[in-house]
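[stage:ingest] chain + small molecule (zinc ion)
[stage:ingest] validated
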Amino acid sequence: METIQIRTPAHSAAVDITDQVAARMRSAGVRDGVCLVYTPHTTAGLTINEGADPDVMADVLDALDRLVPWSGPYKHVEGNSAAHVKSILTGGSVQVIIDAGKLVLGTWERIFLLEFDGPRTRKVHLQFH
Ligand code: ZN
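[stage:predict] done
[stage:export] tokens:
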């Protein structure tokens, strides 16, 4: 298993980690297979989506804020239930096919770590198989 550390920049953020994943894939010498990308946090998520226009992920974060407002009739005393809900909605892992030494992603696709209660330092585990 490989682990990368990501310092997220804001309370909500979508951090493009594609280059870090690709670098670990190359240093591990993996040419073909699958990369499981997993974040072991209950207030963060992972997704694959458009990275060409940064407004897309800004819109996604805004839409999640509208779906799951920070303030609400929550019971959790830590006060970050919205972040937990967003983490569940987005999921905490993605898998990417590796073919001929490249991550198989669509033209506009990037791998994003989603921060819902930052800024913090987050771990992302990678398992190549
Ligand atoms: Zn909490």
